[in-house]
Amino acid sequence: MNRFRVKKVAVLGAGVMGAQIAAHLVNVKVPVVLFDLPAREGLKNGIVAKAVEGLKKLKPAPLGVAEDAALIQQANYEEHLDLLGECDLVIEAIAERMDWKLDLYRRMAPALAPHAIVASNTSGLSITRLAEALPEAIRPRFCGIHFFNPPRYMYLVELIAAPATLPQVLDDLETFVVRGLGKGVVRAKDTPNFIANRVGIAGMLATMREVENFGLSYDVVDDLTGKKLGRASSGTFRTADVVGLDTLAHVIRTLQDNLDADADPFYPSFGTPAVLQALLEMGHLGQKSKAGFYKKV
Ligand code: NAD
């Protein structure tokens, strides 16, 4: 019998993914504590408040009614880590940086409930290495939970075990993801970028190389790789803008750092495309910064 009950979830990170994972949870009436860094100068209401306001403005709005928004409790790591003790599931969705994730895991570990499942939404960092930052007692309850963007609509979730993850924990989490969230699960091995992003990045980089070689326009390529081809998702460049160009660069870097350049067919030998590098240097991160491959996205 499955005894794992999800009464409250902590989502760590109120960015592109964390905010929308929180929205999906409240849409199925699961209360959420949504964490991010404390308010910084120049950001009047804090990162989490801004994210919740952003969710209300999305079309269709995921937080259309007042009681839905009230299901999201706003928190930061400086003042509210004790709230983790009330959560049965913790989904980490902070920026795709191993060092930042490890630091946060060390800080949050003492506050976790003993029964809680902890899962990272990393796009492809090593789940094994992430687990090592947690105390041994927590490692059996830790794994990867890779949602796709936008997580309210994308059906697939990859679940990834670390060496110490208990099979029962994966089974419990899969039951929640399938029955509670209405998603489909594929269990992936802990390889760089797991399955979908390893294959997907290879296709994306090959497309970008052709664009550079032949001077094609983004619109034409997006037509060819997206809706006009019959795919439900947007094409290559609009997808990159939605993902976030900084996140995309981190995901490419994960493959470069961890695959054998000579032997692995998914090694990104094309590297980080020059145009992507140039946009990053200008601080154009795609939809989240209102400019990316497309100026207004
Ligand atoms: P994002 O850049 O939109 O948000 C990241 C959040 O992390 C920000 O709100 C930021 O304030 C916070 N943050 C930054 N530094 C931090 C630190 N040192 N400690 C704690 N928090 C910090 O990123 P995102 O696109 O939401 O990605 C989050 C995670 O989800 C990443 O691991 C990413 O690889 C993964 N992911 C992203 C996508 C996508 O399409 N964007 C899809 C699947 C998985």
Automatic annotation (TrEMBL):
Source species, domain of life:
Bacteria
Domain 3-hydroxyacyl-CoA dehydrogenase C-terminal, chain residue ranges per copy: 194-295
* Coiled-coil stretches: none
Domain 3-hydroxyacyl-CoA dehydrogenase NAD binding residues, every copy: 8-191
Give the shown range, full length included.
Answer: 1 to 297 of 799
- Identification of the protein by name: 3-hydroxyacyl-CoA dehydrogenase
Q: Which GO terms describe its molecular function?
A: (3S)-3-hydroxyacyl-CoA dehydrogenase (NAD+) activity; NAD+ binding
One Gene Ontology biological process:
fatty acid beta-oxidation
Transferase keyword on record: no
* UniProt keyword Ribosomal protein present: no
